[in-house]
Amino acid sequence: xxxxxxxxxxxxxxxxxxxxxxxxxxxxxxxxxxxxxxxxxxxxxxxxxxxxxxxxxxxxxxxxxxxxxxxxxxxxxxxxxxxxxxxxxxxxxxxxxxxxxxxxxxxxxxxxxxxxxxxxxxxxxxxxxxxxxxxxxxxxxxxxxxxxxxxxxxxxxxxxxxxxxxxxxxxxxxxxxxxxxxxxxxxxxxxxxxxxxxxxxxxxxxxxxxxxxxxxxxxxxxxxxxxxxxxxxxxxxxxxxxxxxxxxxxxxxxxxxxxxxxxxxxxxxxxxxxxxxxxxxxxxxxxxxxxxxxxxxxxxxxxxxxxxxxxxxxxxxxxxxxxxxxxxxxxxxxxxxxxxxxxxxxxxxxxxxxxxxxxxxxxxxxxxxxxxxxxxxxx
Length: 379
Hints:
Layout: E1 2-7, H1 13-17, H2 19-27, E2 30-36, H3 47-52, E3 56-59, H4 69-85, E4 90-94, H5 96-108, E5 114-119, H6 130-143, E6 149-152, H7 155-161, E7 171-174, H8 192-199, E8 206-211, H9 220-230, E9 235-240, H10 246-255, E10 262-266, H11 271-274, E11 280-283, H12 292-299, E12 304-307, E13 322-325, H13 330-342, H14 344-358, H15 363-374
């Protein structure tokens, strides 16, 4: 039996994003191994569910920041031994550190497995800090030489990766995200009232939702500043997610008297329900490789107010399914919120278009793309 090894920096990544990969690899007759730091789950997951699905799990030591050399060297040696000992034929790695260790360990193992790296957004991109280009760009160009296939999830990254020198016969593919579950994320108007009651949103309230990790890049503060400027007691904002910026956001909310209208709701497993209560979804990230959370909102026919970046450009159509703003402009976000709140006809038009456009990114279409991609493996 052929054996495939999936490598990621965080333990919950497979359950959250790689269901299609696992399904297609099983169809092709692969035994699935999964190596990660399961003690660092950014996304919640149940290890028992993975085992029941026939996935063989391997705990490894690593740190998601590449300059933690000692831990990542340990992880590199562990992966190299794993690839050799388990006779791995295919390595498919994700995240910057997972991608670095997975590809180098494939080479060091001596087996030379077919190596695929899925970039969920290069750290070097148009408008990125110079330091990102100085550090991450040369690293990725170097690692490309140990790579048979690079999969990108947006056009900007695809065009750049096509200029890299991969292994002989190597190539670059474009995948539009991991796929939207259109049965889960779809309009369910019958539960809107109940969900709003559960969340404490009054009937006349305009409810804005964000789902993202609480960190600097996700840029929640620009929305909070926009709401502070608007000072409208009919605006309600639900921030779904967890992360290191929670205390800073909490402090801003309290100091500006916004605690009755802005709620930090933590990590939610039921975003398909929460979105039914929303009048708008705000996605203010400074950078995104793609941004599945916004596509999930579109699938629920919720207009999106998004920051302009290479990820949101894949699906946002300004003036059609939402409004696009500059990430550092709270006034633009405030104006966008006002437009959607005060113009129900515009909001409905955006909602209709959102649902139609989201169909392009369905899980079924993503799975078919992965079948075509994996079929190109020549081993």
